[in-house]
Amino acid sequence: MTTIVWPSRPHVVPAGAVVGSVHSFDTSTGVDGPGTRFVAFLAGCPLRCRFCHSPDTWYQRSGRPMTVDELVTEIRRYERFIKVAGGGVTLSGGEPLQQARFTAAVLRRCKDMGLHTALDTSGFLGDRASPELLDATDLVLLDIKSWDPATYRRVTRTGAVAPTLRFARRLAERGTPIWIRFVLVPGLTDDPANVAGVADFVATLPTVQRVEVLPFHRLGEHKYRALGVPFPCADTAPPTPDLLDRVRAQFTDRGLLTL
Q1: Is 0.70 topped by the overall pTM?
Q2: Which end of the chain is more exposed for a tag (fewer CB within 10 A), N or C?
């Protein structure tokens, strides 16, 4: 995996160009969509999830201003390799829908290049996704953080679950393929009723292709130390194998392909 984090430096862009804030990019295989992907992490997110492993992407000022042309130029360097590997381009974050105009323009350019496109989002800003943006999106990786509104608020510290659920229904009605992501955090998202609520809802969405139950980890803790910010889940242990099995079974019992 090669990760590029942009240094801070003056940046002049053409008048009228669509500009986004890009924190970094890397390549991944089988994680952020099918095949080998070029993954661009956009800077800025409205949520402050307790288990976030990328606090360095919270603010748009943390990224480098880039025009659509500049990011597409970076993507073109990987174009042949991505196509041969059956992959594509994923826009992640942060939260790419915080920069919806930039996201839409990049996805459209990638689509026009014949690349598979994916959007990795919490769905909290799903109302910002224009029909044109979604027309250029082949797959949405949708992070449903909780079902219970009180738990969702506790998880995100800033958000509400209703916009995510509304966005999920909209995607399903459009026929957009969805991969659901659910982060399993002991003592936070693992309550059986909370998991059941997510599973029951997801089972109503006909375009969901898979559910990824992601075990909580502390791999981003060093970023909090570097930023001088307390890590809210510093004392939380990763889920046990038994807990993972129980939660995955709650999704598979509803006929969902679960990883």
Answers
A1: yes
A2: N
